[in-house]
Amino acid sequence: MQSHEQEKNQVEPDKRQFLTFCLGSEFFGLELHQTREILEYKGVTPVPLMPAFICGVINLRGEVVPIIDLALRLGRPAITLHRRSCIVVVEIEVDGNQVVLGLLADSVSEVIEINNNEVEEAPAFGAKIKAEFILGIAKKNDEFIILLNADKALSPRELAYLIEAEFE
Q1: Is 1 a domain residue?
Q2: What stretches of the chain show up as alpha helix (H) in DSSP?
Q3: Which of 59, 76, 90, 120 is 20 to 30 Å from the Cα of 144, by its Cα?
Q4: How many folded domains does the chain comprise?
Q5: DSSP state of 45
Q6: How far apart are CA 157 and CA 116, in angstroms?
Q7: Residues 125-146 as b or e (16 or more Cβ within 10 Å = b)
Q8: Cβ neighbours of 36 (radius 10 Å)
């Protein structure tokens, strides 16, 4: 038998939970199960000869974690650091292995639950983000939230391709 706390933490099968955050004036969401933690931005160690969207690395309890300026990664202007800037630490699966990345964001908003039927496909025009990077678009309180597919948008293969392209 489940405790009340366990029941409260379970999400219905037709709903998913997303961590929402801001990049500039836009709202984005990542599936909650892919997020590990949120860190206050305290600086990163730059790594030479990396593309602009890779800010550097941090030491997270003995683990070297690359930090990506998600706004730059998605073709937006770079994030201007301020007191609400933070790093969203995510885990994505690549070939059966867990890969940990930090995503620089302007601010984190909240965790929301979205019904699957409330997620619409991204329009084929105007998004300026590769279609496979987007799970869909949801609306909450008159704001659109772009739901990202972290496994695709942040895959090491995709990032390696971008690094190679920048230095060719």
Answers
A1: no
A2: 4-9, 70-73, 150-153, 156-167
A3: 90
A4: 1
A5: B
A6: 28
A7: eeeebeeebbbbbbebeeeebb
A8: 16
Q: Is residue 80 part of a domain?
A: yes
Beta strand pairing call for 15-23 and 26-31:
antiparallel
Q: Are 29 and 148 in contact (CB under 8 A)?
A: yes
CA distances from 140 to 58, 84, 88, 109 (A): 33, 22, 21, 12
Structure tokens of 60? 């997270």
Q: Would you say residue 3 lies in a domain?
A: no
Q: Cα 69 vs. chain centroid, distance in angstroms?
A: 10
Whether residue 20 is contained in a domain is answered as: yes
pLDDT in tens, the chain (168 residues): 444 444 445 556 789 999 999 999 999 999 999 999 999 999 899 999 888 889 999 999 999 999 999 898 888 899 999 999 999 999 987 777 788 999 999 999 999 999 988 888 876 655 556 667 788 899 888 889 999 988 877 776 655 555 555 555
User: CATH number, domain at 126?
Assistant: 2.40.50.180
Q: To which residue do tokens 């619409």 refer?
A: 120
**Which domain, by its residues, includes 37?**
12-167
